[in-house]
Amino acid sequence: MVPITTIHYLVVAAALFVLGVVGVLTRRNVVIVLMSIELILNAVNLNLVAFSRMWGNLYGQAFAIFIVVDAAAEAAVGLGILIAFFRNKETIHVDEIDLLKW
Amino acid sequence: MFLNHIYLIPLFPAFGAALMFFFGRRLQKSAVSGVCVGVVLIAFIFACFTVVQYTHLAHGTGQPFEKVLYTWLGSGGLDSGGPGLSFTKKDGSTAQFNADFGFLLDPLSAIWLLFVTGVGLLIHIYSIGYMAHEGGYYRFFGYLNLFMFAMLTLVLANNYILLFVGWEGVGLCSYLLIGFYFHRKSASDAANKAFIVNRIGDAGFVLGALTLVWYFGSFRFTEINALARSGHYLVGDPILTIGAILLFVGATGKSAQIPLYIWLPDAMEGPTPVSALIHAATMVTAGVYMVARSNAVFVLAPTAMKIVAIIGALTALFAASIGLVQNDIKRVLAYSTVSQLGYMFLALGVGAFSAGVFHVFTHAFFKALLFLGSGSVIHAMSGEQDMKFMGDLRSRIPTTYKTMFVGMLAIAGIPGFAGFFSKDEILWQAWSSEGGAYRILWFIGIATALMTAFYMGRLIFLTFFGEPRMSPEVEHHIHESPKSMTGPLVILAACSVLAGFLGLPHSLGGSNRFGKFLEPVFAKEAHIFETEKPAQYAAGEKEEEKTDPMEYALMGLSFLVAVAGIGWAYRTYGRAEKGYCEPLAEKAPPLYTVLYNKWFVDEGYDYAFTGRRKIGDVRLGAMGAGEASSWFDAKIIDGAVNDAGWLTRAIATVSTWWDKWIIDGLGVNMPAILTRVMSYPARLFEWGLMQWYALVMIVGLIGFTLYYVWK
User: Fold this and answer.
1) Which of B161, B373, B395, B669 could form a disulfide with B404 if both were Cys (CB 3.0 to 4.6 A apart)?
2) In this prediction, does ipTM exceed 0.85?
3) What CA–CA distance (Å, rounded) separates B174 from B170?
4) Taking the alpha carbons of B49, B52, B57, B61 in that order, is the dihedral positive or negative?
5) In this predicted structure, what is the pLDDT of residue A102?
6) What is the pLDDT of residues A18-67, one digit of tens each?
């Protein structure tokens, strides 16, 4: 077996990141888009923790805590916007939310 | 004692004129003639005594006697002092502008004084008979006396200003007397013409006098002569030349030379005594007097003297040529006067001042005689003046005939009579002056003498010889004139013979008393001539020298010319019948027409100056130039101004359009429109889809990252 080094964790985090980006760009359902954004944020968290382990200090982990808090707040706000929008337009499909155009 | 009261001489006739002005209407004819002729008689006697007293006083030194009554313009007497009208002279020093009521008696004015009062007296006596049947008797004598006053003021003045007063006065009286029969349009027109043409000359005179006062600082003759002869001034100074020429312009107007002679023939509209007095003996000689008086100035300006001589000679020739073919008896005499005045100016111009003055003196007698004689003829012919209708009056009016014949011999220049001595002296001076520089003028003079003899002979022969060509009623009334008319004729005829001997030249054994008497007036310039031209002598000095044999030759030549002229006239006109024709009209009709129409000079002046002739609507001549200038100013210059205004408005319109459409339209609005137009495509990118925005963002991010990785 190959020993598990930092790079393995970075690759996993990158894969998760790409999945999250693709999901933001391509999914139709707004809730799924929000979930993909969580996925992106968590991938970044994983990256940070891996680097923290590599350098042997706690800077990475401390910042990851910040990001968790931020992600929570953002999810709350995002869901709030979604509910406000749903009350107006009766839809949860992204491509139908196109009022800000000429 | 007489000299001290010299101012009375002009005042006697002035008194007569004033009396006529206030009371003349109420007086009887005899009272009028008594007063007016009486004052002239007193003036003449007074003048004689004055001149005698003067000659005793002066004893041949010729020192002028000056009496100043009152300084009229400016301050103080003859010395400057106190506040006055000061001005700056040409050389920068200041001088006082002075003109006084002053009287000057020297040999020159003495001669004029004597013959003006003498001939004037004879003409006044003549007028008693001539105007006996005319209306306006008191008016005529009043004007004649006024004329005598003005002429005597002119002659006795001691400065240019008082001379000018007299000058204008005689011009005024000439106007009044020519237009005496003012009911006739031709007479009033002639009077206007005389005064207006005279005025043109007067402008020249005033400018000349002012030039002299600017140059010399004074108007007085004594002061100017002293300065001019002092040798301080350069001969040929251009300012003096111009001043002298301007004075001569005045003389051409008053003494009827080219170009201002045109008034004299028309002046024959006046009564015959007027023609005799004013236009033969006295007024027209005023120009000659003035030039002779200014001889010191003229001598300093040889160019001016040359002009005087040339114009004099040309006028003599020109007028004589016209006189050859005129039919009116008075008109022939008028042109004869112009011609003889030309001789006088010729004499003055070549430097022979005493010869010129001598000719004035003799001319006064025989011209007055001829005019008064013609008046007698007209009186006998019941008013007929045209010689075509006279003839064979010899036996019917014998006294008139005899005296006029004497006058004709005098003017033609037959030796023994006055005209010969004076005219011959002028011709001799013209031949010999300046070593013969004026010979061509001598030639003109002798040609004119031939013509003079011819036309005067023609006048006498047509009038008194030949067949009677008048109508029967006129022939019936022919009678000799009364004694008051024939008396003066006889006296004048005697003078025409005797006066010549006063100037008998050395070459003929005489002593030329006339020239000697005048020597002091003119001889002082001799020293100027000696420095410049040794050959030029003042008149009178020549006679002291040995007589040139050429003088005898020329004398003989002029005698021959005179006889030839009279003889030729006798052959042509001596037996003229009723339908006689002019030989010149037969042989050379165009020349005859030109001469008969006075060389069309009057018509020429009419075209050039009076502005009465038009071509279509366009006025000709000097007035036409004025009208053309006025049209030019109104149409073209003002038109240019108007067009400039129109142009400004047009430019403003263009400017407005440019501003509105180009600047505002293109400059300001165009970017706005472009922005708007360009925004249409740009809008197309804004779909409102959130995921599309996110995709664009990611693509950009990846691009940046790749760029930096590959760097």
Assistant:
1) B373
2) no
3) 6
4) positive
5) 63
6) 999 999 999 999 999 999 999 999 999 999 999 999 999 999 999 999 99
Over residues B686-698, the pLDDT tens digits come to 777 788 888 889 9
Contact A95 B686 (CB under 8 A): no
How far apart are alpha carbons B654 and B95 in whole angstroms?
66
A25: contact with B, CB 8 A cutoff = yes
A98 φ/ψ angles, rounded to the nearest 5 degrees: -135, 40
User: What would the DSSP string read from start to end of B61-78?
Assistant: S-PPEEEEEEEEESSSSS
Tokens at B230, concatenated: 């002092």
CB contact under 8 A, A99 and B691: no
Contact residues on chain B for A30, CB-CB shorter than 8 A = none
Per-chain mean pLDDT for chain A = 92
Cβ distance A94 to B690 less than 8 Å, yes or no, reads yes
Query: How far is it, in rounded angstroms, from Cα B79 to Cα B68?
Result: 12
| Residue A79 near residue B663, CB atoms below 8 Å | no
Rounded to the nearest angstrom, the minimum Cα separation between B675 and chain A is 16
Distance between CA atoms of residues B710 and B524, nearest Å: 128
CB contact under 8 A, B691 and A26: yes
**Burial tier of B240 (Cβ tally within 10 Å: 0-12, 13-18, 19+):** buried
Residue ranges in chain B modelled with pLDDT below 70: 60-62, 74-86, 91-92, 435-436, 506-511, 523-547
B687/A21 touch (CB, cutoff 8 Å), yes or no: no
pLDDT of the residue at B539: 39
Distance CA A42, CA A9 (A): 13
DSSP secondary structure of B595-655: HHTGGGHHHHHIIIII---EETTEEPHHHHHHHHHHHIIIIIIHHHHHHHHHHHHHHHHHH
SS3 A26: helix
Contact B687 A98 (CB under 8 A): yes
Place of tokens 């236009």: B279
Question: Between vectors from CA B64 to CA B145 and to CA B48, what angle results, nearest 5°?
Answer: 45
CA distance A81 to chain B (A): 14
Measured between CB atoms, does A26 come within 8 Å of chain B? Answer: yes
Which pTM value belongs to this model?
Answer: 0.75
**pLDDT at position B173, please?**
92
pLDDT tens for B494-517 read: 888 888 887 777 666 666 777 777
Fold of the domain built from segment(s) A6-96: Helix Hairpins (1.10.287)
B492, burial (CB in 10 Å: exposed 0-12, middle 13-18, buried 19+): buried
Interface test with A, best of B680, B684, B689, B697 (most A CBs within 10 A): B689
Look at residues A98, A97, A95, A99 and name the one whose alpha carbon lies nearest to residue A82.
A97
Place of tokens 């008028």: B334
Cβ atoms of B281 and B189 closer than 8 Å: no
For residues B334 and B264, the answer to whether their CB atoms sit within 8 Å is yes
B478 within 8 A of B468, measured Cβ to Cβ: no
Q: Where are the domains of chain A?
A: 6-96
Instruction: Find the helix packing angle between B286-293 and B353-380, rounded to 10°.
Output: 170
**Chain B nearest CA to A42, separation (Å):** 18
CA distance B540 to B505: 9
What is the model's pLDDT at position B285?
87
The answer to whether the Cβ–Cβ distance between A94 and B686 falls below 8 Å is no
- Is residue A4 scored above 80 in pLDDT? yes
Cis peptide before B259 (omega within 30 of 0): yes
What letter would DSSP give residue B95? E
B686 contacts in chain A (CB < 8 Å): 100-102
Nearest Cα residue in chain A from B686:
A101
B480: its two tokens: 């000799």
**Nearest 10 degrees: CA dihedral of B356, B359, B364, B365?**
160
